[in-house]
Amino acid sequence: MADSELNKRLGTFQDLFVEARLCIDDVVDSAETTYFDEDAEAATEAVKLAVDEFEAIIKDVEDVDQKNRILRGNGLKVEQLKGELKMAIQGGH
Fold first, then answer.
1. pTM
2. Three-class SS of residue 32?
3. Main-chain phi, psi angles of 31, to 5 degrees
């Protein structure tokens, strides 16, 4: 994948990642309120979009070095995002 295309897609992933983090913050803030379920649903969808975009990038990158660089730079962030969502949802109930 060309660097320009990769950078564009990684930028999209970063935007989705930030949005997902904001949604998770909303879940934490709305714990034990009437908004919790709605915020949890929005956060789950936002995390799914970010994770799906990241996995699509990894799938589409053919160069092993490029793929490993992306995984090293973002793989832990994706796992952390999933964990934060799980903790936010479990903590709210």
1. 0.92
2. coil
3. -55, 135
CA 9 remoteness from chain centre: 13
Backbone angles phi, psi at 63, to 5 degrees: -70, 125
Radius of gyration of the chain (CA): 15
Span 36-88, pLDDT tens digits: 999 999 999 999 999 999 999 999 999 999 999 999 999 999 999 999 999 99
> What is the maximum alpha-carbon separation in the chain?
48
d(C-alpha 8, C-alpha 45), whole Å: 22
- Single out the residue of 93, 89, 74 nearest to residue 25, CA to CA: 89
For residues 54 and 14, give the distance between their C-alpha atoms in angstroms, rounded to a whole number: 9
Local structure of 92: helix, strand or coil:
coil
User: Dihedral sign, CA of 55, 12, 75, 67?
Assistant: positive
